[in-house]
Amino acid sequence: MKSSFGSLVLTGSFLIGSLSSHADWPNVRGSMVDGTVPGVSVAPWSAKGPKQVWKVPTAAGFSSFSVKDGKVFTLVTKNVDGVPLETCVALDANNGKEIWSTSFNPAKYDGGANDGTSDNKGGDGPRSTPTLDGDKVYILTADLVLGCLDAKTGKQLWKREIIKEHAGRNITWKNAASPLVEGDLVFVAGGGAGQSLLGIDKMTGKTVWQFHDEKMTHANPVPATIHGVRQIIFFTQSGLVSVSPKDGALLWKQSFPFNVSTASAPVVGGDIVYCSAGYGVGAAAFRVNQKGSTWSTEQLYRITGNKPLANHWSTPVYKDGHLYGMFSFKEYGNGPLKCVELATGKVKWEQAGFGPGNVIIAGSDIVALSDKGELVLVEATPSAYKEKSRADVLDGKCWSHPALSEGRIYVRSTKEGACFDVTATTASR
Question: Averaged over 406-421, what is the pLDDT?
Fold first, then answer.
């Protein structure tokens, strides 16, 4: 049952075991940066849903929650002196109350093409999610402003304007990718020729390396270790581009079509990389090979069209040779959750009624947030669709990822954000 703000406290919960008290969710896809939380067992909640800790307004945006050290971070649209601004807010993880907010560029989403030729209208607020590292918060706005904030106070420590400083090229509907922090660097795309992919010092904001001539997409960059080599994979308009994190040197590249928007991030399972897009593009999987210092890729399959494997902006999650996620294109409120064999593209099962929401995997279970605000617990098995629990928890469009931290699930929509305690079982009712 769906409730208005603060009116109904949902009861019931599920049990999470072996969950570290320091299990933060520091970016859009968690501490593993792949949407998974290993070593977690999940028990179904009752028909009344998981226990609500808090629910607060989160004005306009598709930003997900990031969680660390008792604080929850996201991007919203906030009116400052009558002007709607893209704003990073920090909330108290225990009650949802705002601790601080720091505003950046105007919250205007008019298509985002620098040449003014796009007639597409965006809307609904910021698209990217804050990334947390140490005592700092990193944000990348729709206008490609990269900012570093103090996590305790929200004070701006440094700021980079990618469009101005790196001859940046924004895209239709503007940036939706979140900054990736690994080691000493922040990785972003969006620069111009010869500087389209960037490695930036996370402490100072200075550019450490800038290379390549790739046009950006809405997809997040992905870190991966393939054949023992750490790499950053960017999903650009020309396809997959893998670079060395230390200096940006090209490791391998695989072409893949672009049409209108690519928003689902690539998914890595062993030496296989899966990628997909809507607008008729479809999906493919490639095996990455290495022989000495030479890298190559081979196509395992290529399936065109919006069915059966198109991912609009819902990035699947990988587990034990299979992908689990929401595979659909503009099937709002009805698109299916599917299990797909990574190496073959074979659909093992599908269940309609999810739309373009997002999933994470906690241990042996899928935690899915549908685009209409249902939180659904499903067994992550290729044998069949096995639903364990379902609860209608949010109003508004839910195109964001669930976050799991210290026994709590955090979810948000374009209207509200909520926290649910999922640490303890309750007596059956």
Answer: 94
Spatial contact of 200 and 186, defined as CB atoms under 8 Å apart: yes
What is the sign, positive or negative, of the torsion defined by CA atoms of 325, 415, 219, 70?
A: negative
Residue 178 CA: distances (Å) to CA of 188, 192, 201, 384: 8, 18, 16, 33
Give Rg (Cα) of the chain: 20
Which element (helix H / strand E) includes 163? helix 162-165
Domain that includes residue 96, residue range: 71-175+178-217
Count how many Cα atoms sit within 13 Å of the Cα of residue 220 in the half-sphere of its side chain. Answer: 30
Q: Is 159 found in the same domain as 31?
A: no
Say how many domains are in the chain: 2
Rama region for 82: left / alpha / beta (φ>0; ψ in -120 to 50; rest): left
Rounded Cα distance between 382 and 380, Å, is 7
> 3-class DSSP state for residue 254?
strand
Angle among Cα 226, 67, 268 to the nearest 5 degrees reads: 15
* Rounded distance between C-alpha atoms, residue 243 and residue 161, angstroms: 23
- With a CB cutoff of 8 Å and minimum separation 6, the contacts of 340 are 309, 316, 322, 323, 324, 327, 346, 347, 348
pLDDT of residue 18: 34
Q: Could you give the 3-state DSSP secondary structure of residue 294?
A: strand
User: Amino acid letter at 298?
Assistant: E
Q: Terminal CA-to-CA distance of the chain, rounded, Å?
A: 16
Q: Are both 50 and 83 inside the same structural domain?
A: no
The answer to whether residues 104 and 206 belong to one domain is yes
Torsion of CA 278, 368, 331, 257, to 10 degrees: 0
151 shares a domain with 107: yes
pLDDT at residue 15 above 60? no
As a whole number of angstroms, the distance between CA 409 and CA 50 comes to 9
Residues 58 and 184 both lie in one domain = no
Q: Is the pTM of the predicted complex or chain greater than 0.70?
A: yes
pLDDT band for position 42 (cuts 50, 70, 90): low
Partner residues linked to 422 by β-bridges: none
Three-state DSSP at 255 gives: strand
CA distance 273 to 282: 14
Strands 358-362 and 36-37, how do they pair?
Answer: parallel
